[in-house]
C-alpha cells in the first residue's frame, strides 16, 4: 500500500481512499498486484538471475498484458537494485535528478521499496511504494526515483517504446532535496 508525503506541508496520506484519490487527481495510475502469487524465495531476493526475472514476468503475465492492452506498452523487463548492485550510490545520485520522459514511467514493485517524488499542483510529493504497488508517472511530469532506508527494490518496468525512456533533465528552482 502506497503512502504519500506532501513535501511543502509534510502532510502524510496513509489511508487507501485518500492515497487513491490524491494520485487519481494528479493523473498517476495506481493499482495493486497480488503478492501471494509470487514464490516465497523471490519476495526477499535482490540479486536475480535471468531465470528469476523470467519467473517474476511469467507469474504476473496476466497483469502485465492487462496493463499493456489498456495503455499500449510493448516491452517489459525486471530491474533489481540493492547494496549488491555495483556503484549503487552513483546510480542513486544519477536517479535523484528531477527529469521528464516522453512516455509515462510505469513500475510494479515486487520486492523491497521505492519512492517516486513527483511534481504536482501544490509542489512535490513523495509516493512511498511497497510490494504489490503499481504506479505510473504521467508523461512530461517532473519526477525522480529513489530507494528507502532498506536500499533494495525489485520492479517490473513496462515501456511503450524503450527509446521513450530517456531522462530529460528538468531544471526546477522550486525543487529542494
Ligand atoms: Fe523517470
Automatic annotation (TrEMBL):
Name any one Pfam family assigned in the record. Answer: ARD
Protein origin, superkingdom: Bacteria
Cross-referenced CDD domains: cupin_ARD
Q: Where is this site: May play a role in transmitting local conformational changes?
A: 104
Catalytic reaction list: 1,2-dihydroxy-5-(methylsulfanyl)pent-1-en-3-one + O2 = 3-(methylsulfanyl)propanoate + CO + formate + 2 H(+); 1,2-dihydroxy-5-(methylsulfanyl)pent-1-en-3-one + O2 = 4-methylsulfanyl-2-oxobutanoate + formate + 2 H(+)
| Keywords annotated in UniProt | Amino-acid biosynthesis, Dioxygenase, Iron, Metal-binding, Methionine biosynthesis, Nickel, Oxidoreductase
Manner of cofactor binding, per the entry note:
Binds 1 nickel ion per monomer. Binds 1 Fe(2+) cation per monomer.
Q: Locate the site labelled Important to generate the dianion.
A: 107
Give the pathway listed in the UniProt entry for this protein.
Amino-acid biosynthesis; L-methionine biosynthesis via salvage pathway; L-methionine from S-methyl-5-thio-alpha-D-ribose 1-phosphate: step 5/6
Which classification does the entry list for the species? Bacteria, Bacillati, Bacillota, Bacilli, Bacillales
Subunit structure as annotated in this protein's UniProt entry:
Monomer.
Q: What does this protein do?
A: Catalyzes 2 different reactions between oxygene and the acireductone 1,2-dihydroxy-3-keto-5-methylthiopentene (DHK-MTPene) depending upon the metal bound in the active site. Fe-containing acireductone dioxygenase (Fe-ARD) produces formate and 2-keto-4-methylthiobutyrate (KMTB), the alpha-ketoacid precursor of methionine in the methionine recycle pathway. Ni-containing acireductone dioxygenase (Ni-ARD) produces methylthiopropionate, carbon monoxide and formate, and does not lie on the methionine recycle pathway.
Q: Tell me the protein's name.
A: Acireductone dioxygenase
Q: Please list the cofactors this protein needs.
A: Ni(2+); Fe(2+)
Q: Where does Ni(2+) bind?
A: 99, 101, 105, 143
Family stated for the protein in its record: Belongs to the acireductone dioxygenase (ARD) family.
Q: Which parts of the sequence bind Fe(2+)?
A: 99, 101, 105, 143
EC code(s) of this entry: 1.13.11.54, 1.13.11.53
Amino acid at each position: 500500500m502506497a503512502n504519500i508525503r506532501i513535501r511543502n506541508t509534510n502532510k502524510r496520506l496513509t489511508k487507501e481512499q485518500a492515497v487513491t484519490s490524491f494520485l487519481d487527481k494528479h493523473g498517476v495510475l495506481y493499482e495493486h498486484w497480488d503478492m501471494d502469487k509470487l514464490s516465497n524465495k523471490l519476495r526477499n531476493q535482490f540479486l536475480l538471475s535471468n531465470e528469476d526475472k523470467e519467473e517474476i514476468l511469467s507469474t504476473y503475465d496476466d497483469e502485465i498484458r492487462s496493463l499493456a492492452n489498456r495503455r499500449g506498452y510493448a516491452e517489459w523487463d525486471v530491474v533489481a537494485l540493492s547494496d549488491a548492485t555495483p556503484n549503487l550510490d552513483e546510480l542513486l545520485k544519477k536517479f535523484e535528478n528531477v527529469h521528464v520522459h516522453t512516455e509515462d514511467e510505469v513500475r510494479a514493485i515486487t520486492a523491497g521499496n521505492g519512492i517516486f517524488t513527483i511534481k504536482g499542483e501544490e509542489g512535490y510529493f513523495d509516493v512511498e511504494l511497497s510490494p504489490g504497488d503499481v504506479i505510473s508517472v504521467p508523461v512530461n511530469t517532473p519526477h525522480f526515483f529513489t530507494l528507502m532506508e532498506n536500499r533494495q527494490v525489485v520492479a517490473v518496468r513496462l515501456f511503450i517504446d524503450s527509446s521513450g525512456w530517456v531522462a530529460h533533465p528538468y531544471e526546477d528552482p522550486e525543487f529542494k532535496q
